[in-house]
Amino acid sequence: MALVEMVMPKMGESVMEGTVLSWLKNVGDAIEEDESILEVATDKVDTEIPSTHAGVLKEILAQEGDVVEVGKPIAIIETDGEASTTPEATPAKDEKKAVEAAEAIMETATATVSTEAIPSKAGDKFFSPLVRNIAKEEGISLQELEKLAGSGKDGRVTKNDILAYVKDRSNGSAKVTAAAEASPTSRPAAQPVPVTISGEDEIIEMDRMRKMIADRMVASKQISPHVTSFVEADVTEMVHWRNKMKSVFAEKGQALTFTPIMIEAVVKAIRDYPMINVQVDGSNIVRKGNINIGMAVALPSGNLIVPVIHNADQL
């Protein structure tokens, strides 16, 4: 028997750590190569990490909720090999498989966002690399996969689920869940969660602007993929320039904040990278010819509006 260290893989250039969301296997469970054994979250994507070896999960080194640096051990796998694999020999293979897994998940997530206006993420289905590979080998389409009832966590399709489907299909008895028969475009909208009101709560009727803000916020969440990235930048010169020019603007009755400087930086970035100013229309990408910037503004009433600066690059 050989003991192999499995490390936290690198899932992207800027990804330096990952958070263990859940273990899909327990200590002592038999695992196959490429079988998903845990779920990891990064600032880019949540993805299932496949095992790099077949064997038995001997020890879990990183518990759920732990933040682990890339390259640090997260588990030990007992294999049938004759000699132990050194920790240095495994990271490259781990990285390759995990990056492939992350890309597969991101492709699925991107395709879902581009083609379906799903109000809640709970309606999406993600498939592990192992399941996708089996589906590809067996000629199972994505539409068929989406109709399968999964027995895994959160209804995910497992290896056993898809193998059972393949077996039933070859026997002519394959079945899918009735709930999945409906086309993705015909899914009903998510129902509002009932609000529990106690005797000490106060009910305040929303004015027209509040209602509009609420509608716009919900629409934004449904339409746009929300991604946040943190990159350090040296803005010392910008701060010095603003401090020097504040008095000049004050003489004209204007307060010079960092907001217009940030807007100008965004405009320049869009000019340099026009593919970030796009919209998805079915299977087409619409690259916008105008650069329009929305800017959040707080009103004295406490409401928040977003005026749009049209053709901001021409000002």
Explain what this protein looks like in three dimensions.
The protein has 315 residues and is α+β, with helices and mostly antiparallel strands. It folds into 3 domains: 1-115, Beta Barrel (OB fold (Dihydrolipoamide Acetyltransferase, E2P)), CATH 2.40.50.100; 116-187, no CATH class; 208-314, Chloramphenicol Acetyltransferase. The protein is 31% helix and 18% strand. It has 7 helices and 14 strands. A 4-stranded antiparallel sheet has the order 1-8-6-3, with helices on one face. Residues 83-94, 104-123 and 177-187 have low confidence and may be disordered.
Helix and strand topology:
Blueprint: E1 2-7, E2 17-23, E3 30-31, E4 36-41, E5 46-50, E6 55-60, E7 67-69, E8 73-79, H1 91-115, H2 129-138, H3 142-147, H4 159-170, H5 208-223, H6 236-251, H7 259-272, E9 278-281, E10 284-287, E11 293-294, E12 297-298, E13 304-305, E14 308-309
Antiparallel strand pairs: 1-8, 2-4, 2-7, 3-6, 4-5, 6-8, 9-10, 11-14, 12-13
Helix pairs in contact: 2-4
